[in-house]
Amino acid sequence: MKPSLRAHAPFVSRHVDEAPASPGVFLLYRRGRLVYIGLAGPGGSIRERLHEHLRGQAGSCTRSATEFDFEASPYPVSLYRQYFAVYLGTSAGRLPECNEAVVDEVSLERNGPCLSCRK
């Protein structure tokens, strides 16, 4: 499956299985609306991170996503920051709904800096 920022894949196991086992950024949508920007950091796997969200290991907010997309990258943290910069620039500085729900330290460590804690 090739990433496409126009047509999102259904957020179901058989489509997640086709995501790359490489680092990068993934996007979760609920009925076409972006609700989460996620990171599979260096040494991580987009596919495994998507499965964690699909299994509900990251909470009910991302588990209720209906579609996903991704972009593999050898520089996932930089790419993650770019996605956030674009999103924040078009959303009056508001985080995606499920990124706002990220509160535990494990999720923060996996998903990057606490963007909701910015000054």
Q: What does the model show?
A:
With 119 residues, the protein is an alpha+beta fold. The chain has one domain (9-106): GIY-YIG endonuclease, CATH 3.40.1440.10. It is 36% helix and 19% strand.
Question: Could you write a compact summary of the structure shown?
Answer:
Helix content is 36%, strand content 19%. By secondary structure, the chain is an alpha+beta fold. The model is unreliable at 1-5, 103-108 and 114-119 (pLDDT under 50).
Order of strands in the sheet with most strands: 1-4-2-3
**DSSP strand count:** 4
CATH superfamily: GIY-YIG endonuclease
Largest sheet: 4 strands, antiparallel
* Euclidean distance between termini CA atoms: 39 Å
What topology emerges from the helices and strands here?
Layout lengths: L8 E2 L2 H4 L7 E7 L2 E8 L5 H9 L5 H4 L3 E6 L3 H15 L6 H4 L4 H7 L8
Antiparallel strand pairs: 1-4, 2-3, 2-4
List its traits.
GIY-YIG endonuclease; disordered N terminus; globular; four-stranded antiparallel sheet; 119 residues; disordered C terminus; alpha+beta
